[in-house]
Write a structure and sequence with these properties.
With 315 residues, the chain is an alpha/beta fold. The protein has 12 helices and 9 strands. Strand 1 (40-45), helix 2 (51-62) and strand 2 form a beta-alpha-beta unit. It is globular, with a radius of gyration of 19 Å. The structure holds phosphoric acid mono(formamide)ester (CP) and norvaline.
């Protein structure tokens, strides 16, 4: 049985096949209207969500299945009356798939250890693989071949989205430049960088971490940013973090350092005036709503892959 905990659960070839399937799902959704008939998706969220919650539910329904959104706050799990392993063993007797948005990645790993059905990571403190599947689909639509393209991420390097971008872009043969403040509170985890460099090497891809936002953005095909105040960050940290990250704000001047046809991306939710200016996110280079739409198509492909790892790619 396959799960999607991190993009590195897959080979680069499988990841590409799932992206191809996502393209087919987007081009001809009617052809997949019964692809998940009678399948039940169980969704458990410990943190807020718009895109992940709504796109997964919409996606499974459009493929003939059904979603259950489970409210942790009113559950035996949330009340401390039932353990995570028991919860997941019970759910595995009802549902065909699980999507989980959890604070701790170690809880996702524990969930997977006890699950009788595939589990999809809907975001943890470590990674956000579904987002990056949608992002790669979006970059492919706007830029064609992924191999050899350069993505610059500016802002919080010690971040779930940044980690998954490093994995996914390296697996796709892209170069990645992270522009972020120095130090372990702001830079990507060293083991993620090591793994990304190992994945990029066969394609001749480069991974760079720089404290110079202009250097990181120079000549990039994609400029990407994410919230400076991720869901798990204490609101009391706001002023300190704004001071640290402001030199990495994506402005039009930064976009002008990138390739003239560069696209701007943000996984959303976005805060105008913080990780990017309104001029950039609402401007002509922004593809943020294509990204948001592509969550649906990419995740439908992920679900079909996990429901039927051997034959989902033959459609
Ligand atoms: N990008 C993303 O995962 O959005 P949500 O937090 O709204 O699910
Ligand atoms: N890094 C952000 C991503 C939100 C989709 C967070 O964890 O809140």
């Amino acid at each position: 049985m396959e799960h999607l905990s991190s993009l590195t659960d897959w080979t680069p070839e499988i990841m590409t096949e799932v992206l191809d399937l996502a393209g087919k799902l987007k081009a001809d959704p009617k052809a997949f209207a019964r692809a998940a008939e009678q399948k039940v998706l169980f969704m458990i969220f410990e943190k807020p969500s718009l895109r992940t919650r709504v796109s997964f539910e919409t996606g499974i329904v459009r493929m003939g299945g059904h979603a259950i959104n489970y409210d942790v706050t009113t559950s035996p799990l949330g009340a401390g009356k039932e353990s995570l392993p028991d919860t997941i063993k019970v759910v595995s007797r009802y549902a065909d798939l699980i999507v989980a948005r959890l604070f701790k990645h170690s809880d996702l790993t524990e969930m997977i250890a006890h699950a009788g059905v595939p589990v999809i990571n809907g975001l943890t403190d470590y990674s956000h693989p579904c987002q990056i599947m949608a992002d790669l689909l979006t970059i492919r639509e706007h830029k064609g071949l992924l191999k050899g393209k350069t993505l610059c991420f500016l802002g919080d390097g010690y971040n779930n989205v940044t980690h998954s971008l490093l994995f996914g872009c390296a697996m796709a043969g892209m170069n990645v430049r992270i522009g972020c403040p120095g130090g372990e509170d702001f830079e990507p985890l060293q083991d993620v960088l090591d793994k990304a460099r190992e994945l990029a090497a066969p394609h001749g891809g480069h991974i760079l971490v720089s404290q110079d936002a202009h250097e990181a953005a120079s000549g990039a095909d994609v400029v990407y940013t994410d919230s400076w105040m991720s869901y798990h960050i204490d609101p009391a940290e706001l002023d300190k973090r704004v001071a640290e990250f402001m030199p990495y704000q994506v402005t039009q001047a930064i976009m002008d350092r990138a390739h003239k046809d560069a696209i701007f991306m943000n996984c959303l939710p976005a805060a105008r005036g913080y990780e990017q200016t309104a001029e950039v996110i609402d401007g002509p280079q922004s593809v943020v709503f294509d990204q948001a739409e592509n969550r649906l198509h990419a995740q439908n492909a992920v679900m079909l892959r996990l429901l039927s790892p051997c034959d989902s790619l033959d459609d």
